[in-house]
Amino acid sequence: MALVEEDLPGVGKVRQDFQLKEDGVLARRLQEQEYEQHFNSNVQLRRTARHDVNYAKEMQKKEVLSFKEVEEVRRKELREREEEDERHAAEMEAKLKEEEDVLMAMKMQDELLAKNMFEEERKREERKKRQEEEDMRLARQSSLQEEQLKQQQRREEEEMSLREARRLQQLHLGEARGSKYASR
């Protein structure tokens, strides 16, 4: 088969066909580059996303651990504060109990002392009353003569008591004066 010039297309037509094919090849190459860039971009984005997710998970773990540590420290401090408060309250309660016991003992001692003093006073009053009754009984039984003798003895005793009282008073005054001079 022989090529006939008439069958051949013209240079312009060949050039135009060649340019079309070249444009198609170029378009295909640009499209492949675009697909490859898009694919590589997607791969890179996925890698970055995976890295970011892993990094975020790691940071979250650290934050959770840090929060747990802080929370544990806070709980420990709170427990220690509660224990200290309980010790302080127990000490205060023991101190108050001790003071209450001392006050109760003092109150009981005062009551016992008051009771003893009352009992002593009552016994003294009874003795005095019995003595007075005895004196009255003896006085009634005595005769007039004994009464006069007693009166005489009483007068003598009173005089003697007065003399003794004066003597004691003078001694006392002398001692007071002596101590007054001695203190100067």
Characterize the structure shown:
- With 184 residues, this protein is an all-alpha fold.
- It is 93% helix and 0% strand.
- The protein has two helices and no strands.
- The radius of gyration is 66 Å and the shape is rod-shaped.
- The mean pLDDT is 85.
Which features does this protein show?
mainly alpha; 0% strand; 93% helix
Q: Percent of residues in beta strands?
A: under 5%
Q: Quaternary arrangement of the chains shown?
A: single chain
- Amino-to-carboxy terminus distance: 172 Å
**Total beta strands:** 0
Give the % helix.
Answer: over 70%
Mean pLDDT: 85
Report the order of strands and helices.
HH
What overall form do the CA principal axes indicate? rod-shaped
Taking all Cα atoms into account, the compactness measure Rg is 66 Å
Major sheet summary line: none
- Low confidence ranges: none
* Class computed from helices, strands and strand pairing: mainly alpha
Provide a concise account of the structure shown:
This protein is mostly helical and 184 residues long.
Question: How are the secondary structure elements laid out?
Answer:
Layout: H1 11-141, H2 144-183
